[in-house]
């Protein structure tokens, strides 16, 4: 009986040395990996609230990004939803041998989700209007004072010398539909996703297309300015 107990103790010690339990949502090792050295608001995060479920704001290169995380060595995702094949993939015996966005599927490390995700944007975030000249004389039909003066999908944002009701984004998904685009794609900016376009545009068939107005007239204009 004593021999069995001793063997059990040694087995536990051996296992604890072989596999240290990971903290829930532990950041992946990114030592030696280069990242963005110029802050990119669509990729670089400041806190965990900016990252989607299954990702954590972790050090990456010069800053931090929302990276795929592990939970007690069990990598999130499913082999049934694999994003890549196994040709040339790293051999493995368990998930821990793979990147945090991969799972050990049929003896090979397979990517089942993205390693780095776009961070969540604040709902109704104002577009960047640095360097854009607006109206410097108060126009009650165009300049807003508070959010109540702007229609749905628009926000009272800084614009030139004052504020106007500007098109806003919601979690990087630009509002509007490509089916209702207002302009063609001739000479339009190329894109791979909505974030590459103005807030009143969507990425339609690889080009930024205006699907609504960038600035609209205010509701209930104030006339006693």
Question: Describe it for me?
Answer:
- By secondary structure, the protein is mainly β.
- The protein folds into 4 domains: 28-69, Irregular (R-elafin); 84-117, no CATH class; 121-172, Irregular (R-elafin), CATH 4.10.75; 174-214, no CATH class.
- The chain has one helix at residues 2-18, and strands spanning 55-60, 63-68, 70-71, 74-75, 102-105, 108-111, 116-117, 154-159, 162-167, 169-170, 173-174, 201-204, 207-210, 215-216.
- Strands 1-2-7 form a 3-stranded antiparallel β-sheet, with no helix packed on it. A 3-stranded antiparallel β-sheet has the order 8-9-14, with no helix packed on it. A two-stranded antiparallel sheet has the order 3-4.
- The N and C termini lie far apart (92 Å).
- The relative contact order is 0.11.
- Residues 1-23 have low confidence and may be disordered.
- One of its GO terms (biological process) is antibacterial humoral response.
- It holds the Pfam family WAP.
- Residues 20-70, 119-169 form the WAP domain.
Query: What is CATH's topology name of the largest domain?
Result: R-elafin
State which percent range the strand residues make up.
15-25%
- Percent of residues in helices comes to under 10%
Q: Which geometry do the CA atoms define?
A: elongated
- How many strand units? 14
Keywords: Signal
Pfam family, one: WAP
InterPro entries: Elafin-like_sf, WAP_dom, WAP_four-disulfide_core
GO molecular function: serine-type endopeptidase inhibitor activity
């Amino acid at each position: 009986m004593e021999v069995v107990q001793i063997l059990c103790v040694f087995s536990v010690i051996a296992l604890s040395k072989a596999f240290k339990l990971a903290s829930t949502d532990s950041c992946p090792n990114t030592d030696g990996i280069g990242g963005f050295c110029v802050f990119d608001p669509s990729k670089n995060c400041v806190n965990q609230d900016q990252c989607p479920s299954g990702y954590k704001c972790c050090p990456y290169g010069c800053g931090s990004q929302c990276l795929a995380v592990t939970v007690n060595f069990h990598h999130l995702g499913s082999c049934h939803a694999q994003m890549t094949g196994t040709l040339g993939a790293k051999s493995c015996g368990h998930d821990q041998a793979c990147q945090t966005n991969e799972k050990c599927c049929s003896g090979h490390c397979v990517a089942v989700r993205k390693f780095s995700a776009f961070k969540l944007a604040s709902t109704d975030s104002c577009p960047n209007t640095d360097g854009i000249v607006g109206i410097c004389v108060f126009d009650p039909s165009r300049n807003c004072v508070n959010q109540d003066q702007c229609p749905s999908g628009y926000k009272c944002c800084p614009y030139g010398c004052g504020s106007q009701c500007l098109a806003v984004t919601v979690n990087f998904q630009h509002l509007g539909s490509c089916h209702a685009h207002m302009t063609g794609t001739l000479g339009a900016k190329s894109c791979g996703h909505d974030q590459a376009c103005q807030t009143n545009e969507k990425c339609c068939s690889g080009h930024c297309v205006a699907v609504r107005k960038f600035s609209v007239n205010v509701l209930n204009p104030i006339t006693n300015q």
